[in-house]
Design goal:
alpha+beta; Glutaredoxin; Glutathione S-transferase Yfyf (Class Pi), Chain A, domain 2; 2 domains; 52% helix; 9% strand; globular
Length: 210
Amino acid sequence: MIDLYTWTTPNGRKVSILLEELGLPYTVFPVHIGKDEQFAPDFLAISPNNKIPAIVDHDAGVSIFESGAIMVHLAEKTGRFLPTETKARAQVMQWLMWQMGGFGPMLGQVHYFVKNNPGLSPPAEERFMKETARLYAVLDRHLAGNEHVAGDYSIADMAIFPWVARHDWHRIDLTHYPHVLRWYKALAGREAVQKGYQVPADAGPIPVPA
């Protein structure tokens, strides 16, 4: 059994989508970050960086924080969504790291400066909006010749998808990135993605452009 500590954020949804795709039994423990529940001592014992998501894998006797580390652990545990062959695995891992090191952090800055605090720092807004557009373009060019981000459907797709699901927060028109839009619509239609997106609470339907 797996305990999932999470909230309705892109990083949280990455793990719940993977758990739904894997069909693993798990218990959800909501951590309301708007109420600072991530600073509770019991949660800090599992996630010392006071960030969601985190898991406790009772079968393996391990607790793990950081969404990418959790995804790799679950993929290796089940032998799914992360290839073992060197070249194929490297493809998945590099795009997972692209999301962890660039796509997620840069878009997170757009959430802070553009969506939540407009006018606070025009230079920051310009910087992060420009980088966000560049990263969407990188993904679009790559998907022009690939059905999925890295070979077959993988944890790399699941990691990137919840961030693209907030494209309206980024002031991004996905019709300007047709290959991202095609990929995004395909994933949004998956039952496991739809279920995982609603963990730990119903946040409304996945936003999909007409």
